[in-house]
Sequence to fold (87 residues):
Amino acid sequence: MPQIIPITELRNTSEILERCHSTSEPIFITKNGFGDLVIMSMETYDSIMETLVVDKAILASEQRLSKGEKPIGAREAFKRLDNKYGL
Fold:
């Protein structure tokens, strides 16, 4: 369940830090009753960003397939990675 707190609670920095690190969910901050900020631990942020990168890659692949592009095989994929990164 999402944590939603008013901006005035940000005065309790130690408690907020503890909340951020005790859950993998972001904390939503409201101002005058409306959403204003989101805070989270670095671990949660990194995890969300990694997921976003993978989701974008999947979406791009699905779009290429829907346009009729043929997928490449594993050997070709590894060859491209080798050329790109010198593996």
Q: What stands out?
A: The chain has a mean pLDDT of 93.
